[in-house]
Amino acid sequence: MSSPVVPVDSAVYYSGAYWNDLPAVVEHLHTRMSGHADRTWMHRTLEHRGAPYRAALSLNVGNGWVERDLVRLGVVESAHGIEYLPDLVEAARSAAAEEGLPITYEQADTNRAEFHRGPFDLVVDHAALHHVAHIDRVVRGLCERLEPGGTLVGFDYVGPHRNQYPWEVWEAAHQVNLLLPEHLRQEMTYPHLPTMLVDDPTEAVHSELIEETVRRYFEVEQWEDLGGAIAYLLLTHNARLHARPHDETDEWVRLVLDHDRVFTAAHPEHNLFAFFLARPRHDVLAETEQLATWSAEEERREAAAGDAGSYYPPTSLQLLTQALSDERDRVRALEQSEPTSPAVRGVKAAARQLAGALVRSARHRIGELRRRG
Ligand SMILES: C[S@@+](CC[C@H](N)C(=O)[O-])C[C@H]1O[C@@H](n2cnc3c(N)ncnc32)[C@H](O)[C@@H]1O
Ligand 1 pocket, 109 CB below 6 A? Predict the structure, then answer.
């Protein structure tokens, strides 16, 4: 198997403020997933079976809060979790032990996991599959380990790989951002690919393949698009909005959610998050030729990506982001070394020119999109 993609530092997880830290967003997501503003995806998973599950396998568990909640709520009797980063495995283990909960953990790379435990009647993907490179191999393994009639439950990011949002999404979020009072607006910064690959090479590695791959091996019984193209972009890591009291921001958060609903309904292809319940299709596991084709396809893709993690062609916004970032770095370096040199003035002028060109190109593109209606 070609080189795995593994996380490097747990500091990137559980930091910053997310859209689902806001009460109105929680209400919105609960309603989409369970039909009730006060019922979580966990309640929905229990309702789906009508009785507690016996044993869950949970992927990429982080600090283990998901398994602890599932057991505490009586959704499942026991759980086993997989996580790569040793400090997170340790944190999850000791928190479960402290409460005497029947949960075990294994430090392993999910891409290479053998899934030798089980069988399980529940598999949990909570923000997990979007970190998996060998997605076909892993989802196939989950299908094998689930008992007939067992359940795969997913709550995950299924949007563009590496959060490389297309222009339409970025522009739609930008327009809604302008409707917010200035002090609550998001500082819209397009995800800079080279930085992402250093901070967390697993982030959204093949998120856009999740739905297709799940449907290969599972019969989907419920699939809910949860949106996010506008709301996730404007409300996650929006430090200014999260610094204000909820009763002050609530009406604006709801405005963003209203736009998000309309946009997601009109553009399902730009959905970012999904909730799903599915049962294994064990018959597919007998289709040896098909399985070999999918495995070969995955091996080719992973081998071609190599260590640099270059899977897909860059978006135009990524190229502009990198050009601006490189230019800013050059200006900074020159300012520090020779503050008054003619070279500094030259670079600054070049940077100004580039910024001007970006603005003109953005205006042109917006005009074009408007004309297309
Ligand atoms: C977004 S966090 C989600 C954690 C947890 N499921 C939750 O919802 O709080 C993603 C987790 O996947 C883990 N991870 C990423 N790649 C992995 C791999 N190849 N094998 C095992 N764990 C991995 C990360 O260390 C991190 O804890």
Answer: yes
